[in-house]
Specification:
The complex is a heterodimer of chains A (85) and B (575).
Chain A (H helix, E strand, L loop, with lengths): L3 H32 L1 H4 L3 E2 L2 E2 H31 L5
Antiparallel strand pairs in A: 1-2
Chain B lengths: L2 H22 L5 H6 L6 H12 L2 H14 L4 H25 L4 H8 L3 H33 L4 H18 L2 H31 L4 H4 L11 H11 L12 H15 L3 H4 L8 H37 L16 H7 L4 E3 L19 E3 L4 H8 L4 H39 L5 H24 L5 H25 L5 H23 L26 H18 L5 H11 L11
Helix pairs in contact in B: 1-9, 1-17, 3-9, 3-14, 4-7, 4-14, 4-17, 4-19, 5-12, 5-14, 5-19, 6-7, 7-8, 7-17, 7-18, 7-19, 7-20, 8-17, 8-18, 9-14, 9-17, 11-14, 12-19, 12-21, 14-16, 16-17, 17-18, 19-20, 19-21, 20-21
Classes of the chains: A mainly alpha (85), B mainly alpha (575).
Chain lengths: 85, 575
Amino acid sequence: MADKSSSNAYWKANIKTIQVFLVIWFVCSFGFGILLRPMLAGIGIGGTDLGFWFAQQGSILVFLVLIFAYAARMNKLDKEHGVEE
Amino acid sequence: MDQFTLNLLVVGATFALYIGIAIWARAGSTAEFYAAGRGVNPIVNGMATGADWMSAASFISMAGIIAFGGYDTSAYLMGWTGGYVLLAMLLAPYLRKFGKFTVPEFIGDRFYSQTARTVAVICLIVASVTYVIGQMTGVGVAFSRFLEVDNATGLYIGAAIVFAYAVLGGMKGITYTQVAQYVVLIIAYTIPAIFISLQLTGNPLPPLGLFSDAKATGEPILTTLNGLMNDLGFGSYTDQKDTTLNMFLFTVSLMIGTAGLPHVIVRFFTVPTVKDARSSAGWALVFIALLYLTAPAVAAMARMNLINTVYPEGTQAAPLAYEARPDWVKNWEKTGLLTFEDKNGDGLIQYVADANANEFTVNRDIITLANPEIANLPGWVIALVAAGGLAAALSTAAGLLMAISSAVSHDLIKSQINPNISEKGELLSARIAMAVAIAVATYLGLNPPGFAAQTVALAFGLAAASIFPALMMGIFSKRINNKGAVAGMLAGLVVTIVYIFLHKGWFFIADTASFSDSDPLLFSIKSTSFGAIGALVNFVVAYVVSGATEDTPEEIQELVESIRIPRGAGAAVDH
């Protein structure tokens, strides 16, 4: 059983990781796909703008990268803090 | 061989495969019935989750909704994939560490309250039954087309098959069957998309084809489509017509609903380790993304083909004569899901945005299934798409029925009403719950509250408003106590369901609606988007009530600490 202070540090590191990842998650979907689309209007791609691409395809690709990156990062954190299974 | 026989053969062959696997892997014990013995590899689990996840809404309905809604409907694409990021980071690993079988079990234990568990069961049943209604709509469309019967008959036949199928196997049967279903559905979705992308753009990869030049015009597909749609008064495909507020809330609602739907979460209880729970979410999204990256291409190209069918000489020239309509139009007319009304009596098919002048009504749920016919693809492709649509609808309906039946038999009857119930009695009550759920869903599916994907979106709103916040707060806050959680879930569920019923009719009976989604009660928030507001209400109420009442007990704080770290995740225990 991991001691209390190391599991607290582990949880803090995890929360920080989640925060960073959620910012990327938000910006690439709600941001580029919806709220910031007008700002990206100048960047054309195949008959439309980059915002449309993010809304219909780009965000999904970002989501994929995020999940695997999170899994890898957490596997590392698990070991560093000695809380792995 | 005619198309009807070919459909029967292909659909029959795939069904024989699923049922064969279900019988071969028939559930023996209750533990197997619920969670497949926990021996499932993350990639296999991801594929099964993909099949479970991609329902009639994704396969049959979504591309049609996007084809008609254009950019505005991007929420379906972002929402139904982005939720996996939340699942992987906020829920899956901790729920796996907790190591029980059902979502209400977690809520009951974490909030040390049988009431919380019962409320969770109610939330789960409400969301899942709504979801099954959407599935039944899709099943009805698919069966009516390939058996060439009207929509209601197709629905009854479909309901009987879904029931027989879900009762036969438990989760174990379903895991391996769903792998087979995933393979069938992804092939069925991508092959016609590849053909159509090649026909229109010469690019064999549909997601790239969407942004390529159309062979016919030399301009990008989307520019060409925008031109056609503007000619007919629909406005550009790529333009935003919905309000930013509604689009934003709709996307939130679908995302957190994804992370709150019990039949998906339960998948992450079945992986061997916490580590696997994280990567399983990623693998699930890989398999889901294969369809979701293809869908926007299918949508835009289907819309283009549809317009080109009605206006063979271009949108500036006269439309097609009704007498000269292609076979696919005749086929779909039999289902009643595609209609022509010659308003101006000229015998030509006017297809325009103006509702008074438009003579051609196409149900959005038929687009994916009709797509290969519209593009004149070979008969075997058409049959394959029918089989894929049925695989999608069946696999999800079965997964949902499992979630409903385990909530009733395991969380309600065994844990609360009759703890001494035998294994046999538990299985029997699980099956009765399935039968009731499917009967209700079939009845409501006859007059559904929307197209399949829209009905399913309502289910996501309900899950978003009730289950997701409770799970997330249960893991990330030690302060939320039993009273806060119960009050939060009830508040979120009630405001959301009332808002939905005000717009869609009480219990989805259409004539009892007081508002409509085109002129909603609050700002521009449609009933499908309200789940985001419901979730916010849930969070706020839970915090306020918990803050005003006593602290959580010591042992619950320890439970929360223990689920936060992977170490010590043994095999899950039944109690």
